[in-house]
Task: inverse folding
């Protein structure tokens, strides 16, 4: 069988039946952008997150046009701007650093920990200066970062923005990903664990004042009470109602889908360990972490050859992020020495991502295992 990296037709198989009803309902009401369906989804997601918390705390959600814009808005709400420095990992998706530049602040890159592929508190502390105002803690691929450890190491005046875009449903020690720091974001890009009909994202926080600022920034600085009065300079970053209604419907299936993702990741773990490759690890006890394996990435010293070999066996694999952020042309003005980020560069050069989505069958997993094993056998001949 052909095994694709994502299987959108399977993921959205009930959409042709459901979408006409959603469209008709919103056409009849005339509500398309930042209206009742968005509010309903925000409330449903708040309840979903609160239900996962060991201790009850109010969670506030602001639906936005994308998680990338959500990060920019979150930084603005935290008061980050020109003259400020924000520490961010050298290995991540582009929006992690581009959001910093978008608000006029300076990105300060830190090499990642070689086992987790994520930031470690000690490296962050070393890069802090008097101008440091925030740290972006990125939950990457299948792993959750120990944000509590980072928080305990930082001075209290340093804010933490969690890039939790890919891990909705993940929990660390009784706190959902995105809510240990000051503010977090989730993405609803179609391939994400809770995938929507297009781009969308949400900002989450336990701070009501931050939530109010985010709501204003997403809608041209309006407060939602007085129309056409703009209290600050904001953005057009509003969530669409049809997308929100679809996301709320899909939310009820998320826990089951995430459980299947974990089964797939555990299957891959055994295969990768048997074949002797390096996989992304967690430094936290499994007893306190419920992860969301959005993508399964491991390191191979011949990544392009492996990807081509799998393609010849009708299995679509991909590179991870193929360049560290510190090697991206767009960020070179903020990088003194590209080669000083050794771990990020190695991960970028060797990362291979395997198909990881809940619709993947057990038969498909066995085919992936056999193909990986065949590659190693061929290499050893």
Result:
């Amino acid at each position: 069988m052909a095994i694709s990296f994502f299987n959108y037709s399977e993921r959205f198989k009930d959409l042709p039946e459901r979408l006409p009803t959603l469209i008709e309902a919103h056409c009849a009401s005339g509500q398309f952008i930042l209206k009742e369906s968005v509010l309903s989804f925000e409330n449903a997601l708040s309840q979903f997150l609160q239900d996962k918390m060991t201790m009850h705390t109010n969670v506030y959600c602001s639906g936005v046009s994308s998680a990338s814009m959500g990060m920019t808005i979150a930084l603005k709400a935290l008061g980050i701007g020109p003259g400020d420095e924000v520490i961010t990992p050298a290995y991540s998706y582009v929006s992690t650093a581009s959001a910093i530049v978008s608000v006029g602040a300076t990105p300060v890159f830190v090499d990642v920990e070689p086992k987790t592929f994520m930031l470690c508190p000690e490296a962050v502390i070393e890069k802090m200066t008097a101008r440091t105002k925030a740290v972006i803690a990125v939950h990457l691929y299948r792993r959750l970062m120990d944000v509590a450890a980072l928080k305990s190491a930082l001075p209290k005046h340093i804010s933490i923005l969690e890039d939790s875009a890919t891990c909705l449903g993940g929990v660390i020690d009784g706190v959902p990903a995105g809510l240990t720091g000051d503010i977090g974001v989730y993405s609803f890009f179609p391939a994400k664990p809770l995938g929507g009909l297009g781009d969308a994202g949400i900002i989450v926080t336990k701070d009501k004042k931050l939530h109010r600022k985010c709501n204003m920034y997403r809608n041209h600085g309006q407060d939602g009470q007085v129309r056409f009065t703009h209290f600050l300079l904001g953005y057009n970053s509003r969530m669409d109602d049809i997308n929100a209604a679809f996301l709320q419907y899909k939310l009820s299936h998320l826990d089951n889908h995430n459980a299947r993702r974990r089964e797939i990741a555990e299957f891959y773990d055994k295969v990768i360990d048997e074949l002797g490759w390096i996989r992304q690890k967690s430094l936290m006890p499994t007893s306190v972490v419920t992860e969301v394996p959005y993508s399964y990435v491991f390191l191979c010293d011949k990544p392009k050859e492996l990807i081509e070999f799998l393609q010849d066996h009708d299995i679509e694999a991909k590179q991870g992020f193929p360049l560290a952020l510190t090697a991206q042309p767009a960020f070179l003005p903020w990088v003194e020495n590209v080669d000083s980020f050794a771990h990020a560069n190695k991960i970028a050069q060797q990362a291979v991502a395997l198909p990881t989505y809940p619709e993947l069958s057990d038969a498909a997993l066995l085919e992936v295992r056999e193909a990986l094993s065949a590659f190693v056998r061929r290499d050893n001949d």
Notes: The chain has two domains: 8-110+117-251, 254-380.
